Fold:
Amino acid sequence: MTTSTVSETIVSVLENIVFLKKTQIFSALHTYDIKAVAEIAEELTFRDNQRIVKENDLGDSMYLIKSGTVRISKMIDEKNAIDLAELGAGDCFGDMSVFDAEVRSASVYAQNECVLLRINGTDLIDVILECPHIAIELLKIFIQRLRKANKAIQELSSAG
Structure:
């Protein structure tokens, strides 16, 4: 590697550490733990309306949104989809696929130009084994989402 390539890599990792420290999922972690995640993150850019992940494809990574917004969409029949959520900077998606070998439960599209950090599941599990605090933060996010889904189900069942 050239000196400029090494410098660019170091700057990229430092930028990702600063970004990850501001996200809900990683904000409670020590800088050492965040550095381990930043080192395995790959920065990707998507243009407006570009599909990032496709429903029913096998998932192997999670994504954190550095900038822009994404739309999460689920097919309800062969021709129609419903938008489930819109996520912005600091949010994550695809995290379930890190822990199971299941297919993606929804598609995700860039709403505008987006910069994302892609974290490979196998690499993240290796980091979690070294830094188990990360698993606790992921569990908190899963629980929040489950509570939100339960509330929506309850509201739908009481409205009918």
Q: What stands out?
A: The domain at 3-159 is CATH 2.60.120.10 (Jelly Rolls). The chain has a mean pLDDT of 88.
